[in-house]
Amino acid sequence: MLSHDTLHSKQVIKVQDLIKHCDSLLASGHEPETHALSALEPVVYDLFLVRLKTDNKELEAQRMVIVQTLLKLVRYNKALQLLTVIVDSVRNEGDKWKRLSRQIVDVLLVHLQSHVAIGSSKNQTLLDLYSTQLTLFDVVSSVALRPIDPFVVAFRALANRNDINHHTINRWLMNINIILRCLVQNSTEDAILTRWNDALSSVNGTRNETFSAALLRILHDVVLRLLTNTRQLRGQIDMTLVFLTSDYLYLLMHIMENAKQFRTIIYDFRQLLIHDETDETVHRLDTFSYLTILSEYFKLLSSFYIPLLLQWTHILNMLDYIQEAWWSSMLSILIPSSLITHLSISGQLQSYCDLICRHELYVEHLTSIITHYQLLFFLFEQSDTCTYVHNLFGLIHRTSVASHLFVESIYTNWDNLLKRNKLLLSLKILRTLEGIHLDESGLLLVLLIEQFLQLPYISILRLAELIVCRRIEMMLTLDEQTLNKQLLPKYLPLILQILSTTKINNDNKSNEHLCALIQRLISKMNYITTISMDIIKQDFNNLNCHDEDFILNWIKKVNCPMDITPKIYAQMLKNVTYKKLLPFMMSPVCFRFNLLR
Length: 597
Hints:
By secondary structure, this protein is mainly α. It has 31 helices and no strands.
């Protein structure tokens, strides 16, 4: 009733009287968001949106009174929303926008440092308040965010608070995130560190620590509190604190990404986090390793919320932490069947691949990831979707030694790799083998012919034969000495032996081209062999179609009947009696035969 009237054209109440009533409601102890702020909302829209262009001293005075009233109620989310509307409405009026922004920022900084709870309404969550405050700081003028002295003082005051408990840590971290966001987005490193050191020398009784040390300590305290609260609540994680912690990690990642802008901060952060325990000149905050402790905390939290661990791994990747032992411990697979473990390893593996590609000379990283069959399995799973994994395969293809180790690892761990989803995984593995270094063609041919050409999948067979033929055609352009080095003494005899034992069972047209290329390769190398590469074709017209047992046994032995039409099969099976035909049609052999067709 106090705020608006849609049925009458006459003014129901004057703005001055409305403000008086609002003051009375606040003085009487009524909830501001349900009474006073609800009454002021339509007035704000009217004065600052509908009649914004009206140049009237009385309206201007009313606008100022409204702003002052809202600033008194800045503790509430509704007041922050209305202030956001007001500031955004005057953005085209330069002086007014800057003046109003300065007023709001000064008041907010005081409240962010105070112990008074912002937004006490039970209907409003802390994340709603956080989002509203971030939006408000986005619409204020950048002039109001400088100089940064009050922001540095506010951040230092919050960082040095010792009365944080499980009830207040969410609001405390929210205030930390807001002020840190303003600092890193609107200030330079020199300005931040200069004001920080000035505040350090002017304030007694506070921690004597650098800005990077404060960032690291805050992260440690928050993650420890999050883990402690989760354990006390028997696995029920506080998602509000998780979200705020994730946002804090994103702010740290923003600092790492802007290495040129925050060079000193990143260097100090790296020295504190990734210190050399044998170096006595490195200053340490405590008697324990922050890297070890935080890594363990994040691994424990990954059972409840995986993204925090992935963000932490990404931060170490951005800091170029190259210790292979640490990465191996983070990528250790304790429960392979766990979906959480699967997602965790997959996410961390992407960061590890990015690190390996940036540090090609550190061969121990590449060796550790290639020779571990479980990590190799994750790599193949993400080969089509992850750019970092795709770049890693490109790195492997560019190096002869890495290509040899890669093909050899697949050959050794073949059975373990294809335990799950044999068709899809074999296809992904095959696609990664196309670009193997040319010097490792001999080992590649052995793998393709011995393993892939024996799989009962037409699509795999066709692609494998295509890759084999292309590789042999490439090898035919090499000189005899290079061919002998790649294929002899063991690869070519092994290839010929495999083909000789399988050509009868795989007598399809595509093998004709393969065998012809093998013959050309043997001729170019002047290699003498007793194994014949001639294709032996079955003469279907001369088959004994009256012997029922012979017909059924012959069909069972055919693995890839691409040259046989359904009509030929029908003609052959028509002479088999129903009594013998029925068990055959219901057997697994017939089911496999239908899949191949």
